[in-house]
Amino acid sequence: SYDRGSTFNVFVGRGQLIAGMDKALVGMCVNERRFVKIPPKLAYGSEGVSGVIPPNAVLHFDVLLIDLWNSEDEVQVQTYFKPEKCPRTVQVSDFVRYHYNGTFLDGTLFDSSHNRMRTYDTYVGIGWLIPGMDQGLLGMCVGEKRIITIPPFLAYGEEGDGKEIPGQASLVFDVVLLDLHNPKDGIAIENQHVPESCERRSQTGDFLRYHYNGTLLDGTLFDSSYSRNRTYDTYVGKGYVIAGMDEGLLGVCTGEKRRIIIPPHLGYGEEGRGKIPGSAVLVFDIHVVDFHNPSDSVSITVNYKPSNCTVLSKKGDYLKYHYNASLLDGTLLDSTHSLGKTYNIVLGSGQVVVGMDMGLQDMCVGERRTVVIPPHLGYGEDGVEGEVPGSAVLVFDIELLELVSGLPEGYMFVWNGEVSPNLFEEIDQNHDGEVLLEEFSEYIQAQVDSGKGKLAPGFDFEKIVKNMFTNQDRDGNGKVTAEEFKLKDQEAKEEHDEL
């Protein structure tokens, strides 16, 4: 048989062999080797075989049993590893991805998906596989390992496959199941942690910042935002992410942790991408850091308000306040308490982000409030490098400690009483008909010190005075004459008259 390059295939005990061989093969194991001596009466007797075996010849056979099966055999399944958790098993019409080593009963390897470094991907139970494999894969869990032994009539039968597998060969597949889904599957969500307080859940059009670990069903990690030390930031429900993630991110709370299992037709499909193989089920363990909607405004929650609360902050007021600044997940960003001094601003002057200017409006001294600022009213998409992440929602816990009323809008200096009719002459101390910056500055300082005038609080004195002087110095020669000098209400009246 070695010379012919093919095994001898025969049923035992059915008269297809000489009587001696029929007896000699009984009880043999695969890979067993026997030396068989058969007398003529159990072989070809007194006639022999013309030209090959002489009459009354004793025959000697060196037999190696390669394969063995019975027509009543069924597929044999031996599971040698099964995961503790098995939420789902292979059913008819499921799509699976698995690795295998294929051998004959004698251990000879004929094929291996491991050698090709690619899983075998197929539907189960609908005729895409040999019948024995269709049966042998049913009931498997992801991560399970089993040996599937298939008789030839449930494999490639009498003809073999015309390549590596000869006719009448029993096949042994050592299989590990990596992936499993059904084309009818939707996403699956497993809640791992939901905060007790959840005032709002994400909706279509919201912008989310979240961390994630992305794995395949067998636990293989393919991506992680944690390794990049940066959240993944995106709109949800608008097609910016794969369909399964778009759906899985809806209805989450800030601080929530959930597992989203996405079948390939809602993930990266048959082609896959990068480290993600084709037809792969994806598992995302996500942690929602924060979310907002582009239409959101500042949210204000008053935590404490004094009983005497008549003077409310307005644009132009000079405020001193303490704050703790954090992200929505509670991460502390900054605190005036740790610095041991208040934060001081002129409200509405652009000294803080727009959302803070809004959040400090209409406060009274002693009031405490929480101000939540969406990124488009905070530090935007870029954030502040090393301090505030991009697109972050900010939370400020504020206590207003002091309020100095500001001046009417457009004024940097006002009189507390009647204005002198000889104002220019009073400023022009040397009576030369010209006022220099130094004279102007000394005069304004004297009015403020005496309480006759008031400067806008919170601004640098020299800058205010210089700005006032520049406004009067209409020809820009560094001197103000009586013809140039006008009070603000006089300027407004002249403009009105001209109109």
Query: At CATH's second level, what is the architecture of the largest domain?
Result: Roll
Q: What is the level 1 CATH name of the largest domain?
A: Alpha Beta
Number of strands: 24
- Low-confidence blocks of residues: 492-499
**Strand count, sense and closure of the main sheet?**
6 strands, antiparallel
* First-to-last CA distance: 118 Å
> What is the multimeric organization of the chains shown?
single chain
- Number of individual domains: 5
- Helicity range of the residues? 10-25%
Overall geometry comes to rod-shaped
Topology:
Blueprint: H1 19-24, E1 33-38, E2 59-64, E3 76-81, E4 95-104, E5 109-112, H2 113-116, E6 120-123, H3 131-136, E7 145-150, E8 171-181, E9 188-193, E10 207-216, E11 221-224, H4 225-228, E12 232-235, H5 243-248, E13 257-262, E14 282-292, E15 299-304, E16 318-327, E17 332-335, H6 336-339, E18 343-346, H7 354-359, E19 368-373, E20 394-404, E21 413-415, H8 423-427, E22 434-435, H9 437-450, E23 453-455, H10 461-472, E24 480-481, H11 488-498
Antiparallel strand pairs: 1-2, 3-7, 4-5, 4-6, 4-8, 7-8, 9-13, 10-11, 10-12, 10-14, 13-14, 15-19, 16-17, 16-18, 16-20, 19-20, 21-23, 22-24
